[in-house]
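Notes to self after the Tuesday call (sharing in case useful).
The group wants a holo model before anyone commits to mutagenesis around the pocket. I volunteered. Ligand is heme C. Logging inputs and output together so the record is complete.
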Amino acid sequence: MRYLLLFLVAGLGACENQTYQIGERLYKTNCANCHLDHGEGLGNLIPPIAGSDYLKKYPDLLPCVIRRGLKDTIVVNGKTYAEEMPPNGALSDIQITNLLNYINSSWGNKQAPYELETVRELLKKCE
Ligand code: HEC
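Result:
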């Protein structure tokens, strides 16, 4: 029994690791050209994701920000940004979940992971 448990725990770890890597790949392909490889952002144009207080303040908005983009004036860590983020209409609900869980646990960010079901519910607001 003890061995079975160990096996299960190891299996879960590997699974988490894999979704992290999927999220990382999605980030590099779809986001890093603007937000840069370590989420540092770019001057006054692109807000940072690393250490962003926006992630903590508006977790319920993030799935729609990724799918539909954002054209607003927002404040991230006390700094105002007003450029446009383009939509990512080709990303599936699962890909958005993996992406969010990647940025929420990278570069010092430590937000609780999203469940796929939660992301699906939140995405209904911008269907
Ligand atoms: C063409 C450049 C561009 C791309 C590509 C892009 N973003 Fe953005 N992103 C922006 C800009 C500009 C804003 C601020 C929008 C505003 O002010 O309305 C923003 C805002 C954000 C925010 C909220 C503010 C913050 O920094 O916490 C998050 C989270 C975010 N983007 C994540 C992503 C993710 C994840 C991807 C990849 C799927 C992505 N972005 C792709 C330019 C981009």
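Two things stood out.
Residues 30-31, 33-35, 46-49, 52, 54-55, 62, 65-66, 70-74, 76, 81-86, 88, 99, 103 surround heme C (CB under 6 Å).
The CA atoms of residues 47 and 95 lie 22 Å apart.
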